[in-house]
Amino acid sequence: MPRELVTIQCGQCGNQIGCRFWELALREHAAYNSKGVFDEALSSFFRNVDARYVPPRNLPVGDGTGIIQTLKARSVIVDMECGVINEMLKGPLGDVLDTQQLISDVSGAGNNWAHGNHVYGPQYRDQMMEKIRCTVEACESLQSFLLLHSLGGGTGSGVGTYILELLADQYPDVFRFTASVFPSEDDDVVTSPYNALLSLSKLVEFADCVLPIENQALAEIVGRVDSGARGSTANTVPAAFGMVQEPGSRSKPFDSMNGIAAMMLLNMTSSVRFEGSLNVDLNDITMNLVPFPQMHFLISSMSPLTTPKDMAKISAPRTLDQIFTEVFNREHQLIRADPRHSTYLACGLLMRGNATISDINRNVARIKPSLRMAHWNTEGFKLGICSKPPVGVSNALLCLANNCAIAQTFTTMRDRFAKLYKRRFYTHHYEQYMDLSMFDHASETVSGIIDQYNAVDTAVPPPVTRFRSRGLTFL
Predict the structure, then answer these.
(1) Which of 36, 43, 275, 338 is most deeply buried (CB count within 10 A of its CB)?
(2) CA-CA distance, 279 to 272, in Å (whole number)?
(3) Confidence band of 210 (pLDDT split at 50, 70, 90)
């Protein structure tokens, strides 16, 4: 049975990541679907429609041998500025994105979480829910929602978290994943500390699983890639898949950073789309890696870690031992943190390519002594194997770690917020749309999750009581 994922991309950053995500998803499916048929793997992200009808008619997967007519992404696209959306529609993805699933305005949220959450959210509530309902009804077995957004601006943070709260209310039984871009410490949006903390508090309350991504970490990763090498020729996607990437096309700013985030999402969903000897659904991730409801933030790392267009620059195939060692290296993380010196609540290792369970178990046994696992979950590894590697490499590994090191990231965000809020800088912009008590509530919520992670990090195993056998005595 098909297992669909509905993607909601919100704001400029969320839509730019979504654009790269759809581009790379088409490229990946084209590599493994040379016959151009609409199979279960493709149906996870796309609908196959017959555009001769008005409205277009959805074509079922059936036995997986039907020819692709017109692919439409299972997505809802939201932005309160129409610039990015118009650019996407004019580009090679224009035919893949369903224009009936777009919601936009013209003025934007002005980098103000309150404007997005308390004005645009309620204003477009009915439209957003109708778009989401139509997308959900086109699914046979909806597995989860995936929200792409950032925390530093106004639309992605304010409208994005408003949508997240709506999903929790209207679809409580469907898991809610978010790929949330955290702002850099030197972010040029002066109100980003307010937006980020308000958004983070909503992620704590209404998300089931959050994949934090830091702009600064992505920039450092891209900086380590040899940008001076000659440009590689992009792969051409068959016309049946709705998009053709012209050779020699020029990359746009942030494409490499967005591509790394998109690759992480493709690796995470690979087992949903392709077969393997040890498949892992998204539901399995939340079940095994989130031991406490609010402690659902997963630090992601990948190997090989490079921008998709630079896959050909990898000088030699990596061994499995190298790959496993690299995903526990800070330079391969999509967020700047130090998990090796903090406690792991659980750890997911999702392998793609030609590997066996014995290979994975051997590497876990090799690396495990250097990790500090929670004393109540010393065997807390969730393993997955998907037989299809990313395009251009023979093996790849994604690590999703629920680690207490994330508390330091939250502490930094809270401290940046406190520096502004204690002097009430810029708060008058927010008071137009909300009560200032929401700042205090958000700060308390974030402080609470920090305390929860710190409590696990400093916990010690209870003493073991040993009883001495006295043997038997007879009178």
Answers:
(1) 43
(2) 7
(3) very high
> Which tokens go with 299?
């630090």
The strand pair at 343-353 and 70-73 is best described as unpaired
**Identity of the residue numbered 349:** L
- Tell me the pLDDT tens digit for each residue of 18-50: 999 999 999 999 999 989 999 999 999 999 999
Looking at residues 197-221, what average pLDDT do you find? Answer: 96
Residue range 61-79, pLDDT digits in tens: 888 788 999 999 999 999 9
How far is residue 387's CA from residue 354's CA, in Å, rounded to a whole number?
6
Q: Alpha-carbon distance 176 to 162, whole Å?
A: 13
CATH code reported for the domain at 408-458? 1.10.287
pLDDT tens-place string over residues 377-387? 999 999 999 99
More confident residue, 56 or 205: 205
pTM of this structure: 0.92
Q: Which CATH architecture has domain 4-242+249-407?
A: 3-Layer(aba) Sandwich (3.40)
**Position 473 pLDDT exceeds 60:** no
Cα 233 from Cα 244, distance rounded (Å): 13
Residues 6+ apart with CB under 8 A from 194: 113, 417, 420, 421, 426, 427, 430, 439
Least confident of 20-29, 99-108, 351-360, 463-472: 463-472
Cβ atoms of residues 188 and 220 within 8 Å: no
- Edge to edge, what strands does the sheet with 175-182 contain? 102-104, 75-79, 4-10, 142-150, 175-182, 209-214
